[in-house]
């Protein structure tokens, strides 16, 4: 059997991207999934207990990531279903470290930051790029999903840290993250921040942004929330996610162009953020 060339081994197919185009729809669905994952995790942990909920979350994550890896190209339902489970399990991972192990959010946020930096460093050292436009091989897809899972855990820890330790509360924290997430977009547009760096900066912030507003809607007034309950909020966020993903699956509004050239190893400043 002939040895595969290192540059093509593990390819999913020529021009077959495994992630969506980065447009307004991407960010809307992403923020909705972060909020839904936060409240769904809290609801399951309270209803089933953290151990059972964690086992179900891990099983669901493994199943949906397997389906995503087996897909030959980007498919909206497979991709966003996996993102939802990453959101749920990433929240569980951060909460278990705090609630069960007793690790302060400041410590876990720092640990997840170091882990994220390590994954991104290994990804760049291996592939020469961190652009998600380049996620067209199994190895790059592995780096991508490891990064995504870590950003969810990190964002959960940071969101809970800002809401609890400085006593900002959930709604003010959400407003603060809404302001912060505008910084990479403006920096990329007006200050020449590298598009890939701007993308990952914004991506990390979507987690505490969505989770802060979801917690604000779900937690009781005694904790600074509206008291709608985590179950109803989860359902309320699931409905628009299903509608939007269904729309994307039928219209292909976020499907990458087939046959698009793979980006070079070094992304030019100001390039598309995907």
User: pLDDT under 50 segments (min length 5)?
Assistant: 1-15, 258-274
- Strand element count: 0
- What fraction, in percent, of the residue positions are helical? 55-70%
Note the total helix count.
Answer: 8
Q: Which series of helices and strands comes N to C?
A: HHHHHHHH
Biggest β-sheet description: none
Mean pLDDT: 84
Strand content: under 5%
Radius of gyration: 19 Å
Please state the overall shape, judged from the principal axes of the Cα atoms.
Answer: globular
Q: Termini, distance in Å?
A: 36 Å
Structural class: mainly alpha
Describe, in plain words, how this protein is organized in 3D:
With 274 residues, the protein is an all-alpha fold. It is built from eight helices and no strands. The protein is globular and about 50 Å long. The N terminus and C terminus are likely disordered.
Task: Describe this protein with a few key phrases.
disordered C terminus, disordered N terminus, mainly alpha, 274 residues, globular, single chain, 8 helices
Provide a quick synopsis of the model:
The protein has 274 residues and is mainly alpha-helical.
Annotate the secondary structure layout.
Elements: H1 24-48, H2 50-70, H3 76-99, H4 105-127, H5 138-164, H6 170-190, H7 195-218, H8 230-251
């Amino acid at each position: 059997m002939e040895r595969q060339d290192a540059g093509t081994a593990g390819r999913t197919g020529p021009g077959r991207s495994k992630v969506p185009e980065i447009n307004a729809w991407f960010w809307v669905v992403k923020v909705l999934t972060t909020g839904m994952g936060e409240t769904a995790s809290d609801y399951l942990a309270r209803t089933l207990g953290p151990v059972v909920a964690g086992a179900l979350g891990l099983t669901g994550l493994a199943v949906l990531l397997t389906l995503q890896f087996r897909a030959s190209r980007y498919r909206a339902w497979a991709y966003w279903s996996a993102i939802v489970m990453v959101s749920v399990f990433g929240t569980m991972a951060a909460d278990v470290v705090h609630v069960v192990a007793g690790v302060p959010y400041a410590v876990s946020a720092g640990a997840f930051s170091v882990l994220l930096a390590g994954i991104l460093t290994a990804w760049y050292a291996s592939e020469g790029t961190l652009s998600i436009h380049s996620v067209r091989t199994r190895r790059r897809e592995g780096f991508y999903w490891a990064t995504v899972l870590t950003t969810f855990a990190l964002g959960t820890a940071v969101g809970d840290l800002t809401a609890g330790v400085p006593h900002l509360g959930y709604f003010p924290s959400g407003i603060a993250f809404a302001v912060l997430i505008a910084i990479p977009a403006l920096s990329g547009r007006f200050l020449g921040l590298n598009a890939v760096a701007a993308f990952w900066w914004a991506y990390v912030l979507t987690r505490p942004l969505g989770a802060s507003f979801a917690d604000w809607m779900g937690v009781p007034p005694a904790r600074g929330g509206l008291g709608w309950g985590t179950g109803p909020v989860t359902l309320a966020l699931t409905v628009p996610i299903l509608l939007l993903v269904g729309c994307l699956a039928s219209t292909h509004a976020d499907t990458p162009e087939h046959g698009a050239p793979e980006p070079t190893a070094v992304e030019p400043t100001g390039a598309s953020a995907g």
